[in-house]
Amino acid sequence: MSKLKLVINNDNNKRIKELFFIKQELKYILHLYAKMVSNGSWKDYSFSMGSKEVAFNVYQRSSEKPVLRILKNLRPNYNNEKYLIKDRNGNVLQKSGSLIRLINKTSWNKLKLIK
User: Fold this and answer.
1) In this structure, which long-range contacts are made by residues 95-101, counting pairs with CB atoms below 8 Å and at least 24 apart in sequence?
2) SS3 category, 66
């Protein structure tokens, strides 16, 4: 009995909690995806995960690289870099601290997809 330990304030559950998009974030992303598919702009999507970010990748055709990436930065340096939109070359098009604001402030129809 002397080898038992009491662990208080275990942080393991807090770290595992947000390793992916939460339900509300996925709802907004998939709503945007459905709108753009019905518009004829986007054709396919995928998810990718890394130790620093989770990405929703958008494809115009069955190509090797995604045309756009909506990223959730798991370790942002600044508050406004939590959510990013990147093009196929990795250039940041938009960034925000809130996914809802990022989706709403981006003019998706004016965003040109380069072949």
Assistant:
1) 99/25, 99/28, 99/29, 99/70, 99/72, 100/28
2) coil
